[in-house]
Amino acid sequence: MALYIGLMSGTSADGIDAALADFTPGKKIQMLDTSFTAWTEEDRSTISSLCTPGDNELHRAGLFSCRYAETAAGAVLKLLQKNDLTPGDITAVASHGQTVRHEPQNGFSVQIGNHAMLAAITGIDVVCDFRSADIALGGQGAPLVPAFHQEICAHPDIPRYVVNIGGIANVSVLIPGTTVTGFDTGPGNTIIDALARKYLNQYSDFDGKTAASGKPAEEIINRMIAETPYFMEPAPKSTGRELFNLDYLEAFPDLKSLSISDLFATVTELTARTIVDGIGMYRTPGEIYVCGGGSHNPHLMKRISELAHNAGHLLTGTTNDIGVDPDYLEALAFAWLGYKFINKEQIDMREITGTSAKEILGALYPHP
Fold this sequence. Notes:
Elements: E1 3-9, E2 15-22, E3 30-38, H1 41-50, H2 57-82, E4 90-103, E5 108-112, H3 115-122, E6 126-128, H4 132-136, H5 146-153, E7 160-165, E8 168-174, E9 181-187, H6 190-200, H7 209-212, H8 218-226, H9 229-232, H10 246-250, H11 260-280, E10 287-291, H12 298-310, E11 314-318, H13 329-342, E12 363-365
Parallel strand pairs: 1-4, 4-6, 7-10, 10-11
Antiparallel strand pairs: 1-2, 2-3, 4-5, 6-12, 7-8, 8-9
Helix pairs in contact: 1-2, 2-3, 6-11, 8-11, 11-12
């Protein structure tokens, strides 16, 4: 067996997803077990504060890097215990870290996490820093998972679009006979979740109930799309909470006149519209499969389905319908990236991120 553990904490900052996987050559990739470790309210607040410039941020980032390592180590050790494994049974832990800045236009993307500490606590080699090499070669550093989606989700005859709705939404374009590509379509849950914390005193609009009770302001949505240059940019492209946050909404003062339910309906519709518009760039009807936290929002899924149908696509469901747990697909993808790094296998991201060459992604912290 070739066992790896993938760790993912995304822009939604809800917690760390962990996936134990077997990448034995010549056999089908198997996700053997999963676990989820939620961030505390204080952790969420810290992550949010580190995403924008602030006082003493280097010190605070250093402290949270250690907090990440301790939490991630707990997730790893829990999987080992559950599956009667020892650290020596695992080839490597592949850790995404926690994104706090994503600025490829300035040559960097920052995922904090004390990975030397993670290797020391677990006794397992840790592969991390998956985005820097791509950006160094002129790429966006995101999204990184379409190449893995091609391997595990593609159909030989049917076009498929895999949409991951985390804090930011991205799409992998899997059209038979063409090179896999993908890009960030725009906001996923990030603005919805920020509004939920502000107005509902909860982490998200659970089940999309608040949005479902309101009416989207179509005129404002059209203006948001028209006046946000990112939506008009061609792929490859990537974005983050640096753009799509509560400050972004301040540029559209008409939003302040909306009721709470209409405000949630409007920002949820913006997410659905920009996802389907992004898919529509390819003019090839196909099946759509959704993963990530947004797959649990029935109102958002309903709107994506309706808009996709109008555009000639079919929202088939979540990636669970093709055998991959939608909550852990990204963690599994980073386990795969770790496997690729350990085996020094290049990945072709040129049509995905815009990088200039095939590349080996990641950096290694050996365990003591």
